[in-house]
Write a structure and sequence with these properties.
The chain has about 160 residues and is of the alpha+beta class. The chain contains six helices and five strands; from the N terminus they run αβααββαββαα.
């Protein structure tokens, strides 16, 4: 992958994360906290001095992007957000398998140009890469549609 293509994929991933974060905030009923390694690794990298720290760093590199608190239940979800233009069971399974080894329980939220998908990584692995559509009970259909339209203005 050349540098420009890598940058393009990185930007799409960041847009997907922002779509997820803003959509849940707009829906109400959630607290969305940045959780991913980008937020904490610079300081840890400066202090890394031992083999034990290197193993710890690998776990942190795989940290989900967000911790989401659902107000109605006080349940906390650790959520990894991925953008997939062409979602396949193989891609979904690969993402879930990477997460399950370090962060279980955790959840995968997939952003596509046509809709959102959400499920626990354990369930995705058990179902060999199948993932459920993101339900309308958490975020209303019209709000999801608005955010799909917003996504598609940035990602083509």
């Amino acid at each position: 992958m050349d540098k420009l293509n890598f940058s393009k994929q990185l930007i799409k991933g960041r847009v997907a994360e922002m779509i997820f974060e803003q959509m849940l905030r707009d829906a109400g009923g959630f607290t969305v906290l940045g959780f991913g390694y980008e937020k904490i690794i610079p300081e840890l990298a400066r202090r890394q001095t031992s083999i034990e720290a290197e193993r710890t760093m690998e776990i942190i590199r795989r940290a989900p992007d967000f911790a989401v608190i659902k107000h109605a239940t006080n349940k906390v979800y650790l959520v990894e957000v991925k953008y997939m233009y062409n979602m396949t069971t193989a891609k979904v399974l690969s993402a879930a398998e990477k997460m399950i080894n370090s962060w279980d329980p955790s959840y995968l939220f997939i952003v596509t140009p046509t809709g959102f998908y959400f499920e626990s990584v354990r369930s995705i692995v058990d179902k060999e890469g199948q993932i459920e559509s993101f339900g309308y009970d958490a975020v209303a259909r019209d709000l999801q549609d608005e955010y799909i339209n917003l996504l598609n203005t940035f990602i083509k």
